[in-house]
Design a protein that fits this description.
Number of strands: 5
Strand order of the largest sheet: 1-2-3-5-4
Radius of gyration: 15 Å
Structural class: alpha+beta
CATH class: Alpha Beta
Order of helices and strands: HEEEHEE
Oligomer: single chain
CATH superfamily: Phage minor tail protein U
Helix content: 10-25%
Number of domains: 1
């Protein structure tokens, strides 16, 4: 069994966001396809840090989730970010081979891309897991 939850965590987040039904619909990716759809959500960048304190075999992970929109202003991208916050706040995420101990948003950041057209919401998610027995 893999100790690093990075891959199953990414899959669980993508599935949860798709099934929740944000304005991005099924446009949830780790790599954006050539069709370049908007609005969309990307799940990808992150890190995994082993947590061996108190003889634990846990992992603290950080995952970046980005929402992108070409709608005028920030309303659409902020609504998508709110939906993602709702998903995270429920804590109802199944990560294959791992037990979820903590799931929280650490940061929400909103910006406009240099193209002047694209709004972005960046969410930093903190996750603590341990291998399932």
């Amino acid at each position: 069994m893999a100790i690093d939850p990075a891959l199953p965590l990414q899959g669980a987040l993508i599935e949860a966001i798709k099934s929740f039904g944000t304005a991005a619909g099924d446009n949830v990716f780790d790599t954006v396809p050539a069709s370049n759809p908007y609005p969309r959500v990307t799940v990808g960048m992150g890190q995994s840090i082993p947590d061996r304190a108190d003889c634990r075999n846990a992992t603290e992970s950080f995952v970046q989730i980005d929402a992108w929109s070409r709608a005028v202003g920030y309303p659409e991208v902020k609504r998508i970010a709110d939906d993602i916050r709702d998903i995270i706040d429920t804590g109802d995420l199944t990560i294959d081979g791992h037990t979820l101990e903590l799931l929280e948003i650490e940061l929400s950041d909103y910006s406009r891309d240099p193209d002047g057209l694209t709004s972005r919401a960046r969410l930093q998610v903190r996750v603590l897991t341990s291998p399932a027995n």
